[in-house]
Design goal:
This protein is an alpha/beta fold. It is 40% helix and 16% strand.
């Protein structure tokens, strides 16, 4: 009966669902690759009761793991009390107020006001709007342009898609915002003023000079790039960008959608570099995926300028400040603090990087293990010394992902640029030492199988 149910669901899925970030042709012909049924802690199970380690927290967001009964219970209780209410027309609700207070107690500096969204793409679109609106309020309406970074990922709504520095997303459907520009990432010396650097013209500083600071509203940066391949910036980079934005009278937006709420072993990614952005986009880990919720947190001067407006703020979402989602967020952050999961992520991340060192010593093609906390990745390069990459036919990253999947570990690969083969590992913050050791063991077995197949 279960197999029949699984077959029926797969057929219905093929007929009726267009999946995100999936080949439509593949899904129409083959159906879903996995139909999940339940989750417990670090693990997730399909309808055939196959058990997988969730090695990327689904989409970097299930920070406290699957099947948390406390989150289910507070959601149930709040739904019985007040499932939904609007925040339009000045309406509010207790969970939204309390969660805003909690978020702003965690954020650095004077990031002390919140605008609620339903997720990361909405948060980044909102940050762009608020940055532009702020400059309008300051009498600088020409400051419209947003500078983002190549390989950065900021979502797939029209503006967020254009800010995303991955060409397959930027080009999709011909949609675009002409006032959003990609710059080259992580050029510290350029951002500090090295005009002789060969990539200076395409750096953030070079882009500001070309466009004119009087036309640039904001720079948006992920503290650690996630879906672009887990790229950790050079040590002084974020400080250099913060200083540049201050010099040029430009706002700095930190996209903390992936990094935020403990993922990197700190409350927020920017905490690793001790900077305070002007606006911070959050989502994902705010509820650990148990409810759809995001926010933009803004510094006092921005909120003060906006709050001088006597007219209606012409921006908002139906589910802004959703009471049930905010209740889940509050309990989620309580669990993260109570269970000391941020420090745990820091310690388990260090253990994961030690495992990468072991794999680096064992396999010539394993290269550049990196990350902070439980946001980690590594490159696969056929011959790192000669910089010889794997061919598209060899599909190194996706082959390792499939080998791991066979062995009960779900991880994520990236190959959206020629020669790129990156694998990301980002398990829930509840991971323990034996979980990390199991993950490394499975990756080891998968690398070995791939190496034998190619005769490496």
């Amino acid at each position: 009966m279960k197999n029949q149910t699984l077959y029926t669901l797969a057929e219905l899925d093929k007929q009726h669902i267009l999946h995100p970030s999936t080949s439509p042709a593949f899904n129409r012909n083959n159906g879903p690759t996995i139909i999940f049924e339940r989750g417990e802690g670090l693990h997730i199970f399909d309808m055939d009761n196959n058990k997988y380690i969730d090695g990327v927290s689904m989409l970097w967001n299930v920070n406290v793991g699957h099947g948390n009964k406390e989150l289910a219970q507070v959601s149930f209780d709040q739904m019985q009390k007040l499932a939904y209410s609007s925040m339009f027309y000045g309406y509010s609700n207790e969970p939204a107020v309390k969660l805003a207070e909690k978020i702003t107690s965690m954020t650095p500096g004077d990031l002390d006001s919140v605008f609620y969204t339903s997720g990361g793409s909405e948060s980044n679109d909102t940050a762009f709007k608020l940055a532009r609106f702020y400059w309008e309020r300051k009498g600088l309406a020409n400051k419209k342009k947003i500078i983002s970074l190549k390989r950065g990922y900021h979502g797939v709504t029209v503006a967020a898609q254009r800010a995303t520095g991955i060409e397959v997303y930027r080009a999709f459907s011909g949609s675009g915002d002409p006032d959003i520009i990609n710059a080259e990432p992580h050029l510290t010396s350029c951002e500090l003023g090295d005009i002789n650097h060969p990539s200076y013209q395409n750096s953030i500083r070079g882009t500001i000079e070309r466009e004119g600071a009087n036309h640039v509203a904001a720079v948006i940066i992920e503290p650690i790039q996630g879906a672009g391949g887990v790229h950790v910036p050079p040590e002084d980079y974020l400080q250099a960008v913060r200083k540049l934005c201050d010099e040029q009278n430009i706002l700095l937006i930190a996209d903390e959608v992936i990094c935020g709420f403990g993922r990197t072993g700190r409350s927020f990614g920017v905490n690793h570099w001790d900077i305070v952005p002007d606006l911070m986009s959050v989502a994902k880990g705010i509820t650990s995926g148990y409810a759809q919720l995001g926010a933009v947190v803004m510094r006092t001067p921005i909120m003060d300028a906006i709050c001088e407006v006597p007219d209606m703020l012409a921006h908002g979402f139906t589910y802004s400040g959703h009471p049930t989602a905010c209740t889940v967020g509050l309990k989620n952050l309580e669990i993260i603090e109570r269970e000391n999961l941020i420090d745990q992520a820091d310690q388990m991340g260090k253990l994961l990087l030690k495992g990468f060192d072991y794999l680096n010593d064992k396999y010539q093609f394993f290269h550049n293990g990196r990350g902070r906390g439980l946001l980690t990745g590594f490159d696969l390069i056929k011959d790192p010394e000669q910089n010889i990459t794997f061919t598209p036919e060899e599909a190194a990253a996706m082959s390792i992902v499939e080998e791991c999947k066979k062995r009960g570990l779900l991880i994520r690969g990236f190959d959206f640029e020629p020669g790129m083969n990156i694998v990301a590992i980002a398990p829930p913050l509840i991971s323990q030492q034996d979980d990390i050791e199991t993950i490394i063991s499975i990756v080891d077995e998968s690398l070995s199988a791939y190496s034998k197949r190619l005769g490496l």
